[in-house]
Specification:
With 104 residues, this protein is an all-alpha fold. It is built from three helices and no strands.
Length: 104
């Protein structure tokens, strides 16, 4: 087994401590149990493919989620533009009314 990194590490640093071996075994066991429980839950739950005439639709086209649009900016811009327009119209009407002598 020349070139094996595990053997090279063991020859250089010595064997692994017992707690590292036990931790790896526990981690692998927990992962295995999680996979088995997911598989068991998936087997218990009915899926749309099991129902007659109901096949799951495949998503086509985009491969990633669409970007979220920030809606507040266009709404604020439109609101500010309308408010400025109303203010300018009001100022022009007041000026014309005062110059023509029409009482407001």
């Amino acid at each position: 087994m020349p070139g094996d990194p595990r053997i090279a590490h063991m020859l250089e640093h010595g064997p692994l401590p017992h707690w590292m071996i036990v931790a790896r075994q526990r981690r692998e066991e927990a992962e295995r149990e999680a996979r088995e429980s997911r598989a068991a839950r998936a087997a218990e739950e009915p899926s749309l493919a099991d129902l007659p005439g109901m096949a799951p639709s495949r998503r086509r086209g985009r491969h990633r989620a669409p970007r979220r649009r920030w809606v507040a900016l266009p709404v604020a811009a439109i609101s500010v533009a309308l408010l400025m327009g109303v203010t300018i119209v009001e100022a022009v009407v007041r000026t014309i009314a005062e110059l023509s002598g029409f009482p407001l």
